[in-house]
Amino acid sequence: MRLIKSNDLFELRVLSQVSNEDLRVLNLLYQPFLGNLAVSIYQTLLLTRPLYEDGPSSHEFLFNQLGTTSLDFANAIVRLEACELLRSYAQKTDDFTLFYYELFSPKGAKGFFADPVFSGLLTSYVGERRVQQLTSLFSSDKKYDLKENEITTSFSEVYTPDFNSPSFNKEVDNAHLGKNELKRKSPFNPELFKEYLRKNHMIMADLGLNQEDMRKIINLTVIYSFNEETMAAQIGASYDGSKPLGERVDYDYVNRNLKELSRYKHIAKPKRIKPANLLSSDSEKAKLINRMELESCLDFLSSFNEGSVVANSEINLLLRLSNEYNLSNGVINALVYQVLMAKNMQLQPAYVESIASNLSRLKFSHAIDVINYFDEQQSGRKVKPQTITPPSSVKKTDEEEMSDEEYKRLLEELKNVS
Hints:
This protein is mostly helical. 51% of the residues lie in helices and 5% in strands. The chain is built from 20 helices and four strands.
């Protein structure tokens, strides 16, 4: 449970342009699941921003302005954070805590309704009929039905860019510019993938792909971490409907393409961001574990190669760890790291798979499970054959309250990774 006292101070930075239309989206679309208090906090921070330009301000001002308690305020802040509208940082002193708040604009209406999580959350709160009514409030004029008569000039016809030029390989730091473009941390969405496959490639996944196909596709996202649209494009390009069910996708072709796309990330579709089972500690060990959870298996392994490509045999090993041993992204990365450190940077398949078999039986889900497993092996302590996924070892991303028992367990476990 987060504790915010009235004498705790805060500073505020607004990192997105927030328009009247954004506030309309906030009140009509976000409010049902955010709650009135969270929306009021957002708007109060935004509108009273000039009052905080001279230095930190006390939370007591906000509590009085909103007529709320410390506990209700903290719970509402967590909701804003979960919905990507606020980021929080804290520095503790002996007398008080100084919080730093970063405010972001909400999604546009189109982006909100296109997001299966946000639109689904709204539907669960207000019902499908109400969602349809709300959609009509943000609708624009209907497009012309004249596709065969379109004469619009394409971008490439005018500019003919040379994508091999160094200009297109530079990354621009635009985190502080414009609208909120934060990506929601979510797992691969099979239904969204199927929709892209149907819409862009005229393939009905429920009829053209079987369960084994979907398992292989999801496992490919563990290794390469590309989003649903990119995966649909690759499956669509390799699909042969004349073959028997289960043999219609050329996975060798897909694997080669995804490997090539990983080398040209500025041209490829953006990679998805996986659930962040992140540790809150700032230690180097915790940062490494967080990298294991966030980076794709291929990216993580590539970071040890100092720019050289990853061998096909090693990519195939990663695929086996995902396909045959059903290991998660974080577990695979942690296993790879431990083996590289123990075997002088050599990734020996037989040795890796012998450990993977044990990790699979233990049903480990997160990188920290593997790190603790190896630490226990070295210290001679007995390993518990069970899933080690305590909620206290994972950074909270929703509005759940933490019990006193969970809080004590969190403090004990953080001692092991600090």
